[in-house]
Design goal:
Blueprint: H1 2-146, H2 152-172
């Protein structure tokens, strides 16, 4: 009995082992068909997404470096443009200042010239007025001293002599 029990245990054990093996293989096929494919596909999709993200990050980094270099270049250009604008403004300001100074000097010269002409005209008018006044005073004095009226030619000679005396006295001043 002992031998048949062991044989029955061995057969039962072998049957259980075969059943477990068949169920295991069946479960393995079911897992492969229903779970392994989607899991593998999901892992492949995830790997592709990670690679795409890494490529996108590399592209973004390269683009950022390019933009940074471009901004740096534009900054240098803007600095040089600002310097050029300032220099141009200085040159234009200096030209404008010189034009204003030249105009002011020209105006000052014309005012001086006009003032000289006006002074000369006033002097001439004052001398002529003084000559006329002196001539009349001389005639009046001469008439009182002489007691008679002078002729036109006598008046003219007297006036001319007096004017010559005034002119020579005025030139010595």
């Amino acid at each position: 009995m002992n031998g048949s029990v062991i044989a029955a245990i061995d057969v039962a054990s072998l049957g259980d082992s075969l059943f477990l093996l068949v169920v295991f293989i069946l479960l393995l096929l079911l897992v492969k068909h229903f779970a392994w494919g989607p899991v593998t596909k999901m892992m492949d999709d995830r790997a592709k997404k990670i690679n795409a993200d890494l490529d996108g990050a590399e592209t973004s980094r390269a683009q950022a470096e390019k933009m940074a270099a471009q901004r740096q270049s534009e900054l240098k250009n803007s600095k040089s443009e600002a310097i050029q604008i300032v220099n141009t403004a200085k040159v234009n300001g200096e030209k404008r200042r010189q034009v204003i100074l030249d105009a002011a000097q020209s105006d000052a010269e014309s005012v001086k010239t006009k003032a000289r002409e006006d002074a000369q005209q006033a002097r001439t008018e004052a001398l002529n007025s003084a000559r006329n006044d002196v001539a009349q005073i001389s005639v009046d004095i001469a008439e009182k001293l002489i007691g008679k009226e002078l002729s036109v030619s006598d008046q003219k000679d007297l006036i001319d002599a007096y004017i010559k005396g005034l002119t020579s006295a005025d030139e010595t001043r």
